[in-house]
Design goal:
Helix content of chain A: 25-40%
CATH superfamily of the largest domain in chain A: MoaB/Mog-like domain
Largest sheet of chain A: 6 strands, mixed
Structural class of chain A: alpha/beta
CATH class of the largest domain in chain A: Alpha Beta
Strand order of the largest sheet of chain A: 2-1-3-8-7-6
Strand content of chain A: 15-25%
CATH architecture of the largest domain in chain A: 3-Layer(aba) Sandwich
Number of strands of chain A: 17
Distance between the termini of chain A: 44 Å
Oligomer: homodimer
Radius of gyration of chain A: 28 Å
Order of helices and strands of chain A: EHEHEHEHEEEEHEHEEHEHEHEHHHEEEH
């Protein structure tokens, strides 16, 4: 079964609001094997809603609408659906009474305008709203199903759960969508894809087909795998095998196959080894340590860090030799190494990390342009220093630098596994 | 002029991702008087994209597409648009060369697959991508305009600005939407709204009507003012007056009326005073200094910071008396004050900030529950210490703590103005 999700409301076409209901609806539909093919947001314009709904019924056999079920003239979903399905709108006395008693319970009189909420396209089944006045509606039209849900999440959610459980789940054959996300860092999207595509390209024709989407996010690449399977056990088996195949061609650049962020992966490695860490941050300005400490329980392994934005603090706080800075410059491999050594010694940790670079937008030179970043990682048994060239805004250079530092530590800690 | 915005990408039809590009695009289009009538999200399916685009061209004279311009087979926007507009796709050598040289600059060879990004529907104008390999495209088709922009925001945004300025703004005339954002911190949404509503409630019936939306974001409240005016000068006059009225009732809790973030406001104050700053961060784990150093040029006033996650580093690095921690606990006003004093003395700065607290989810007690945070700010002439109770996840507590620390410094530095 394929679905379209339509959100109705002019406020969702302003720069201030976004339709988030569709995320929950997608998750619940996917879980019973319904694929979402299209999402649309329409304003309070009945002609445009009619056009969009007509289009949706061509693409999908299920249309889920949210919003536009309120009592005002702006609320046009009922009318739009009635026109598309070519049915008259009838006033249902039972709904009027239920809205009236809802008002009465609060000691209020129902305004006449709320009668609009009792107008129902002929043949619709009314879905009870436990948290508001707008009832939902369920309509069948040939092979197609149209569900109308209210916009406010607390009214929409319980109604959605009921519709899924009582009406939609029994109609699906038991096939569902299951997902897995691989996260990768340190390589370009095109490089990843040229290695991965020959592998995942084979999967769509398997007994349990898996589709793959590649997604480049700042400082990392994600591969989203979606299996269509009769049950979770079959999906898990197929997805585990698929993940292993991808790991085979992508190697150690895959840092997570279970949704963990890089700071969580690194934190788990540190905790597993019983190691502690300290960082000397110049270019990242605290971001590296902030990301490490975003992880609950990170106080077990993060001891301390120093943000040394001035040369003086590099020298006085971290014992970086002044001559080293004079000779090589603050952004250089020897200085990054001395920063990592210095903070490791002062904090008494197993791991010391040093990051120095030019975050921009100012401060670049021909020899060391903006985005030049040097990372050093020193552990009890190993030391590595690497120079990177990043691109983007100041914040993006900082983010990629923190990402690179954590990834270097990860690779050093997993090299012997 | 009416517009539709279409986001292309199967990942945007999963429960994990949402199209946020359309918010910025809407804002920029509104600013030149273009109304957004419809937003759609389509997966990587060229037939469905063709159907949606056909529909959009019926509703609107401008279609803005984002995403699907990458080099892989998933990237189907170019092909979909070519089919809808009935034009062949041509390989443009100039684009191949520009992508090749972009790879070469990074010391890499362009993979063959990237040639797909140089396929262009005949008659299209190529829009330069300063931050990536995917060029944008501008197409005219009768009265209609179709704009293709890449999906990643950092690639999309500069291209959008250029298209608006050079192509779309000259085509529009007359009444436009103008906006202003007030940012407020340190007060609850309901408190702000009960003060502001009697003021902004008057504005909708004025000659230049202004509508107001209140938006609660983590650690701050935003008031979005939208004026409908024949030109910028008239809008500016009306909006300036409106902003002044709101400042009258909201006072010093308004930290910005010109879009500046709190870290920029604080940075401008420090630079204006010729002051330097250092921070001792426990609970925020580096986030406070990271946000301060997100601002270009912040090395002028940020000297150094210490993330002191262990008590030992508080004592050894910042001279916090051991007895103070033993007597009051690490999360206490005396310790926060000693941290601020200690880092200020060690770094030799005008301002010292200390943040200590329980970010959670573990570590809370009945007396000091999760979210208890103490902030101390010491300057050349003043010192303040304050205990806060925040709510939310670990990351949310960190963010609100950094926000509170910067706001304390802002209020101390503006008290005498």
């Amino acid at each position: 079964m394929n679905a379209c999700i339509v959100a109705v409301g002019s406020e969702l076409l302003t720069p201030f609001r976004i339709d988030t209901n569709s995320l929950l609806i997608t998750e619940r539909l996917n879980a019973i094997g319904v694929d979402v093919r299209l999402k649309a947001v329409v304003g309070d314009d009945v002609d445009e809603l009619v056009q969009v709904l007509t289009q949706c019924l061509r693409v999908a056999d299920l249309v889920v609408c949210t919003g536009g079920l309120g009592p005002t003239e702006d609320d046009i979903t009922r009318e739009g659906v009635a026109r598309v399905l070519d049915r008259p709108l009838d006033l249902q006395d039972a709904i009027v009474e239920s809205i009236r008693s809802r008002f009465a319970k609060r000691g209020m009189t129902m305004p006449d305008i709320n009668k609009r909420q009792a107008m129902v396209p002929r043949g619709a089944t009314v879905l009870e709203n436990v948290n508001g006045t707008a009832p939902g509606l369920w309509l069948e039209h040939g092979q197609a199903r149209v569900v109308l849900l209210p916009g406010p999440p607390r009214e929409m959610t319980p109604m959605l759960e009921t519709v899924i459980r009582e009406r939609l789940a029994p109609m699906t054959a038991g096939v569902a969508l299951f997902r897995r996300v691989l996260r990768i860092t340190g390589r370009a999207e095109s490089d990843i894809d040229s290695r991965a595509q020959p592998v995942y390209g084979q999967w769509t024709s398997r007994p349990i087909p898996i589709t793959t989407t590649i997604l480049a996010v700042l400082g990392q690449i994600e591969l989203h795998l979606t299996a269509v399977a009769p049950n979770r056990a079959a999906a898990d088996e197929a997805l585990e095998a698929a993940v292993a195949e991808l790991q085979g061609v992508l190697g150690s650049s895959v840092y997570s196959t279970d949704g963990r962020q890089l700071e969580v992966v690194v934190g788990d490695l540190l905790r597993g080894a019983g190691w502690t860490v300290a960082a000397a941050e110049s270019c990242t300005g605290g971001l590296l340590t902030s990301r490490l400490t975003d992880v609950p329980g990170s106080s077990d392994y993060v001891v301390a860090s120093v943000v040394c934005y001035s040369n003086r603090t590099k020298v006085e706080w971290l014992n970086v030799p002044e001559e080293l800075i004079a000779e090589h410059g603050a952004v250089s491999e020897p200085v990054a190494r001395a920063m990592a050594d210095g903070v490791r010694a002062r904090a008494g940790t197993n791991v010391g990390m040093g990051v120095t670079g030019i975050a921009g937008p100012g401060g670049g030179s021909a020899e060391k342009p903006v985005g030049t970043v040097v990372v050093a990682v020193v552990t009890d048994s190993d030391a590595r220093v690497k120079t990177f060239q990043f691109f983007g805004s100041r914040e993006q250079v900082k983010y990629q630098s923190a990402q690179a530092a954590m990834n270097m530590l990860r690779l050093m800690m997993t090299a012997h596994v």
